[in-house]
Amino acid sequence: MEKTKILYVEDEPFLGKIVNESLQSRGFEVMMIKDGKDVMEAYSKFQPHICVLDVMLPNIDGFTLGQHIKDISPHQPIIYLTAKNQTEDLVKGFQSGGNDYIKKPFSMEELIIRINNLLRLTQKGNVIKAGKESNFSLGNYTFNPNKYTLQIGNKNRSLSHRETELLKILAENSNHAVQRREILKKIWGDDSFFNSRNLDVYITKLRAYLKEDPQVQIITLKGVGYRFVIDV
Question: pTM of the entire structure?
Fold first, then answer.
């Protein structure tokens, strides 16, 4: 049985060591990051089931990181950890994509209970991240990211790795704007001009693959990115 993966971001060494070891002793798989600038790369590689983010971090704060993560994966569960106790901080945490908010100091029992409760509430949104075989219903198409296939009727198209990753990002964010910059960084690693042109090519390919169902559209949002729309 696959362990629940937690991306834990904390720059206080002593607290981080205690929480990391405690979570691992409870059967969680933990990736601990200490600097905000390293989080998005770690997130992309680790694909956690839940993120536990300290708010005050070097270089990039937890609230900003939460916003970046939600831009990529709107259903990603996020718990913020903070010593702040002002109402405006609590509001900002939820506005930036947090599902829960724990004030320091906290007990490990409280953290673990909140992690398990949040995972139960968001279980549906974690199907793909858990690595289990699961399909997306995209209008008349069936998309299986684990098998790299896109099917309509009895036609089954094999997709490349990058085609699959791009369609998966769009499908997970149906009817939400997805920023070009976030797509480029997640799939290509940077948002250079060359990679940006590659993204245009892949978008054109996916539109061609999906043209047999006019209800399914990839809409360009100028200056922002894309919105994947399924009309029903």
Answer: 0.54
